[in-house]
């Protein structure tokens, strides 16, 4: 078994050199809430602000072009980290909570003609995966939990109705640490023609994620739980879904043409990428952020020694049959053309 030099690992995190109450060395165990930031991440952010501070996708001058290259390089890093098929399936958000709110709000708009719209969640969910759907006007149907903390998947079958729009479940509980059987949940949901969102805030820092193998339709994570900066996160979405979801926010990058009388929204997932416009914090992903501050096989929880700033290459590279006619329209294939 490989052993880590703990002193060198602690050296990567300056905050661990301080003493608490002026007596004791800091021992930090609250990583499920947020992780401490390695020196490489903080230095990368500083370098971006000092040397490449410019709007992305907005200018033809040198700094803007360089910032855009770093920004899109970050998107490629995250794509490999999650095993997604394309960078067009990666949207930067402010965290898991906003990623879930994005899907909830857009899904509500997509199904605005159904006032009885429903979402299936589990009894293990974080508040973000409950409140987001309630605010968007969904009725929650809940997968029950046994006394052992296991989800009752037999009960799941009986929760689907003609009003079910989506299943949204945690991958790993932030309270119990229980890993939910998302593969079976996804398979069951797809049989009913219903898409699935996986809350990966607690799983992405601790295990290898392959969204293609999972076949989930959406996957959400937060950078601050993976040694990254506060205020950045990711929403993975199958391209066909991102193409058809209504806009979540309005702004400059998501428009094709605008006047005081009318608005033309861009097609493809650019309508959602308005979220990852301005902000040097996002570009740290492509330098030494969570996708790069990892062990090649063990995932981001196994922190490697920092080699050189901006030169981390350790991140791993990374409709069902029987669909009912009533739900088939909910489950687009990857080959669907843009609307």
- The total beta strand count reads 11
What is the overall shape? globular
From the 3D structure, determine the CATH topology: Aspartate Aminotransferase, domain 2
Are there runs of 5+ residues with pLDDT below 50, and where?
A: 277-291, 293-339
The count of domains is 1
> If you average the pLDDT, what whole number results?
81
Beta-strand percentage range = 5-15%
CATH class: Alpha Beta
Biggest sheet, open or closed, and with what strands and sense?
A: 7 strands, mixed
H/E element string?
HEEHHEHEHEHEHEHEEHEEHH
Strand order of the largest sheet: 3-9-8-7-6-4-5
Give the class from helix and strand content and strand pairing.
alpha/beta
Distance between the termini: 52 Å
CATH homologous superfamily heading: Type I PLP-dependent aspartate aminotransferase-like (Major domain)
Number of H/I helices:
11
CA radius of gyration is 21 Å
């Amino acid at each position: 078994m490989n052993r880590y030099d703990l002193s060198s690992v602690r050296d990567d995190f300056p905050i661990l050199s301080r003493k608490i109450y002026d007596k004791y060395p800091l021992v930090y165990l609250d990583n499920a809430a947020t992780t401490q930031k390695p020196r490489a991440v903080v230095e990368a952010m500083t370098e971006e602000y000092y040397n490449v501070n410019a709007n992305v996708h907005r200018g033809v001058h040198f700094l803007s072009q360089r910032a855009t290259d770093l920004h899109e390089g970050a998107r490629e890093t995250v794509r490999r980290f999650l095993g997604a098929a394309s960078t067009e399936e990666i949207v930067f958000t402010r965290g898991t909570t906003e990623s879930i709110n994005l899907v909830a709000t857009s899904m509500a708009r997509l199904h605005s003609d159904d006032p009885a719209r429903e979402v299936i969640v589990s009894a293990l969910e974080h508040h973000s995966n409950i409140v987001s759907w309630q605010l968007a006007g969904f009725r929650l149907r809940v997968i029950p939990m046994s006394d052992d903390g296991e989800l009752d998947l037999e009960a799941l079958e009986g929760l689907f109705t003609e009003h079910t729009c989506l299943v949204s479940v945690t991958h790993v509980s932030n309270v119990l640490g229980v890993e939910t059987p998302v593969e079976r949940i996804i398979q069951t949901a797809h049989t009913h023609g219903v898409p699935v969102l996986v809350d990966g805030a607690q799983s992405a820092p601790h295990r290898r994620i392959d969204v293609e193998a999972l076949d989930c339709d959406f996957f959400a994570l937060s950078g601050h739980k993976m040694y990254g900066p506060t205020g950045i996160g990711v929403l993975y979405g199958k391209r066909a879904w991102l193409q058809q979801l209504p806009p979540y926010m309005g702004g400059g990058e998501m428009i094709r043409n605008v006047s005081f009388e009318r608005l033309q929204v861009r097609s493809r997932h650019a309508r959602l990428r308005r979220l990852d416009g301005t902000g040097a914090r996002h570009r740290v992903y492509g330098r030494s952020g969570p996708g790069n501050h990892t062990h090649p096989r063990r995932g981001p929880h196994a922190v490697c020694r920092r080699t050189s700033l901006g030169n981390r290459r350790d991140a791993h590279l990374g409709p069902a049959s029987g669909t009912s006619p009533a739900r088939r329209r909910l489950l687009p294939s990857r080959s669907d053309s843009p609307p």
